[in-house]
Amino acid sequence: MNTLTIDIRKAEIRDADAIAEVHHEAWRGAYAGIIPHRALTAMINRRGGEWWANAIRRAATVLVIEIGGMIAGYATLGRNRARELKQQGEIYELYLRPECQGIGLGTRLFSAARQRLADHGLKGMVVWALEENENALAFYSGAGGRDIAEGVEVFDQKALRKVAFVWE
Ligand SMILES: CC(C)(COP(=O)(O)OP(=O)(O)OC[C@H]1O[C@@H](n2cnc3c(N)ncnc32)[C@H](O)[C@@H]1OP(=O)(O)O)[C@@H](O)C(=O)NCCC(=O)NCCS
After folding, report:
1. Residue pair 42/111 in contact by the 8 Å Cβ criterion
2. In angstroms, rounded to a whole number, what is the distance separating the alpha carbons of residues 69 and 52?
3. Atom of ligand 1 nearest to the CA of 128
4. What average pLDDT does this structure show over 10-23?
5. Residue 28, CB half-sphere, CA atoms under 13 Å: how many?
6. Whole-number Å distance between alpha carbons of 160 and 21
7. Are 38 and 158 in contact (CB under 8 A)?
8. Which end of the chain has the least Cβ crowding within 10 Å, N or C?
9. 68 to each of 25, 65, 74, 122, how far by Cα in Å?
10. Is residue 49 a contact partner of residue 17, using CB atoms and an 8 Å limit?
């Protein structure tokens, strides 16, 4: 039996291409059939390695979870963007490669992201998920999130409802 080490750390520039690949696979897996095809393809194409290298250089924190040397997922986090919610921190995105889902890695990455926000002195946390993304809803309510607000996101003229989960 091989033992694989699991490591969660801040992303480095050299991770940019691998994160772009995770983003591509995870977004296709999660949103095909929910977000209209053209809008989804455009969003994926916009975020290649260069885009991620810039994101890593800028202020928003990008974390990666690495398993046996492979980037299995990423999370981005920072200040809460929704003024109407009082929580100070936000996980903007949390995505795993489809083949790495369902084995507890999301839970680990989520805890690390939450801890990092707390370390930055941010009190409380918000995460938004599309209402049709049932796995994400199950994941965040299972992680103790309270769904307290709703919003709408429009993709190619298709309006999709989104839900905000909060942790105090
Ligand atoms: C949502 C996601 C981050 C969860 O991470 P994960 O590693 O797959 O989840 P875990 O293995 O840590 O599971 C934790 C809990 O999440 C829920 N969950 C995870 N995968 C699930 C699935 N496929 N269906 C239903 N619930 C699921 C379960 O409640 C599970 O609890 P349990 O182990 O007690 O049953 C991950 O599956 C993912 O990246 N999905 C696609 C992208 C996405 O939807 N991201 C969130 C966008 S807001």
Report:
1. no
2. 19
3. 48
4. 98
5. 11
6. 25
7. no
8. N
9. 19, 10, 15, 32
10. yes
Which residues form the pocket of ligand 1, taking CB atoms under 6 Å from any ligand atom?
26, 29-30, 94-96, 101-107, 129, 133, 135-136, 138-139, 142
> Exposed e or buried b for every residue in 16-46, given b needs 16+ CB within 10 A?
bebbbebbbbbbeebbeeebeeeebeeebee
Domains of the chain by range and CATH?
A: 6-167 (3.40.630.30)
pLDDT tens across 51-78, in order? 999 999 987 799 999 999 999 999 999 9
Which residues contact residue 62 at a Cβ distance below 8 angstroms, ignoring those fewer than 6 apart?
Answer: 10, 11, 19, 52, 55, 56, 74, 75, 76
54 vs 71: CA distance, rounded Å: 18
